Automatic annotation (TrEMBL):
It comes from Lolium multiflorum (Italian ryegrass). ATP binds at residue 134. It catalyses: L-seryl-[protein] + ATP = O-phospho-L-seryl-[protein] + ADP + H(+); L-threonyl-[protein] + ATP = O-phospho-L-threonyl-[protein] + ADP + H(+). The lineage of its organism: Eukaryota, Viridiplantae, Streptophyta, Embryophyta, Tracheophyta. This is non-specific serine/threonine protein kinase. Residues 1-68, 385-413 are annotated as: Disordered.
Length: 413
């Protein structure tokens, strides 16, 4: 839900008093308040309730409740469990440091256990694992991002979006409860080293790219029309089978019609991922997300961070550095591919994926493909590779040509 540069595009939200329901969010264009007033007060009466979103918006009611053609659903009202702080303390064993899964711009994320049906606090042996994100009061994020998460993610259901289960707003404490994603973030798997982070295979990388593209295509679909605005490796969480789900809707915006832009007064984003037109002018397009997707695709191919000040100055920005190498494929691309792949990838598929990343990273937003087009291309790359794989699995033909690894250990460009 974070931002690494710039600051909020609106003035900081007032501290939550615990008396008022979460409100606002720019989706769907008019004020929405999530939760009943009792639901967020944290009083004992709120425990275990499911909140709805009350809305006075006509636009809101006109929204279709399903987006079956894109495999997702937009709920009329979020169905979220309203937790008390005491419950979440019990769920996370008192927010113990040992329970910390990670930390981002909003605050720490804790592991916890809750009953599968009621989501009441549970013993570890009896419950399901959940992830609880708790606001750090020193964070520049706060009420606005929390409301945005509840209002957007609380209404969206899609296999490639992380499930928000509930929230808590009590006194100044703001918390969000999610389904637990056992493999953590893509960022950890791509860039961290250690026994817990085995190198991702080519097939897994492609699977992650396809699932993330599907999630983003759903957000951009006519049913949904959301600009996600924070597409990056740390916001792609992975299930037990490395199935990807997008998380963090704190920066999401209700999107303008295709081709039109939404103007933000101040720029929010993460170094290396934000589209150039957005950084330069604050004009945010649906295609600004496509740029972010291109950056992550490049990270999947190269195993290199989008922005890394530890690299030589001409290589700090991955896109600028890699752009000349990904346009053409071939040997130059081979040198740029992640060495942790050990050369185990189909070179044609890699060249096609690199070309796709190049198109997503086009300076002119209009020339970037739509997420539907990106998804179709990635599926084609996968289908071709698996068709080839099954051919390879057939009994050997006479004198099969030996396949040379395309990776020759050359130093990177
Ligand atoms: N639902 C979840 N299941 C499992 N782990 C999670 C979950 N949500 C977050 N995490 C872990 O907590 C870390 C921090 O997540 P968080 O979204 O707060 O920050 P971030 O994405 O790293 O940064 P930013 O604030 O810029 O978005 C993640 O990298 C991940 O390892
Ligand atoms: Mg995040």
């Amino acid at each position: 839900m974070g931002n690494c540069f710039g600051c909020r595009d609106e003035s900081p939200a007032p501290p939550a008093t615990g008396k008022s329901p979460p409100s606002s969010s720019s989706w769907p264009n008019k004020e929405i308040s999530a939760g009943s007033s009792s639901g967020t007060s944290g009083t004992s009466g709120s425990s275990g309730t499911m909140s709805g979103v009350s809305s006075g918006s006509e636009d809101y009611r006109r929204w279709p409740s399903t987006g079956a053609d894109v495999g997702g659903r937009v709920l009329d009202v979020p169905k979220l469990r309203v937790f008390t702080l005491a419950e979440l303390r019990a769920v996370t064993r008192g927010f113990k440091p040992e329970m910390v899964l990670g930390e981002g711009g909003f605050g720490r994320v804790y592991k916890g256990w809750a009953d599968e049906r009621s989501l009441n606090p549970a013993k570890s042996s009896a419950g399901v694992v959940v992830a609880v994100k708790k606001l750090n009061h020193e964070s520049v994020q706060g009420l606005q991002e929390w409301q945005s998460e509840v209002n957007f993610l609380g209404r969206l259901q899609h296999p490639n979006l992380v499930k928000l289960l509930g929230y808590c707003g009590e006194d100044r404490e703001l918390l969000l409860v999610y389904e637990f994603m056992p493999k953590g973030s893509l960022e950890n798997h791509l860039f961290r080293r250690g026994a817990a982070f085995e190198p991702l295979t080519w097939e897994t990388r492609l699977k992650i790219a396809i699932g993330a593209a599907r999630g983003l295509a759903f957000l951009h679909s006519p049913e949904t029309q959301i600009i996600y605005r924070d597409f990056k490796a740390s916001n792609i969480l992975l299930d037990a089978d490395f199935g990807p789900k997008l998380s963090d809707f704190g920066l999401a915006k209700s999107g303008p019609a295709a081709g039109r832009s939404h103007v933000t007064t101040r720029i929010i984003g993460t170094y290396g991922y934000a589209a150039p037109e957005y950084v330069a002018t604050g004009h945010l397009y649906v295609k600004s997300d496509v740029y972010g997707f291109g950056v992550v695709l490049l990270e999947l191919l190269t195993g290199l961070r989008a922005h890394d000040t530890n690299r030589p100055s001409n290589q700090v920005n991955l896109v600028e550095w890699a752009r000349p190498y990904i346009a053409s494929g071939g040997r130059k691309l081979t040198g740029l591919m992640d060495q942790r792949l050990g050369g185990q990838y189909p070179s044609k598929a890699a060249a096609n994926a690199a070309r796709l990343a190049y198109n997503c990273l086009c300076g002119d937003p209009k020339s970037r493909p739509s997420m539907d087009e990106v998804l179709a291309k990635l599926e084609e790359i996968e289908a071709r590779a698996s068709a080839r794989g099954s051919q390879d699995a057939l009994p050997p033909r006479p004198a099969p040509a030996a396949r040379r690894s395309p990776y020759r250990g050359s130093s990177r460009p």
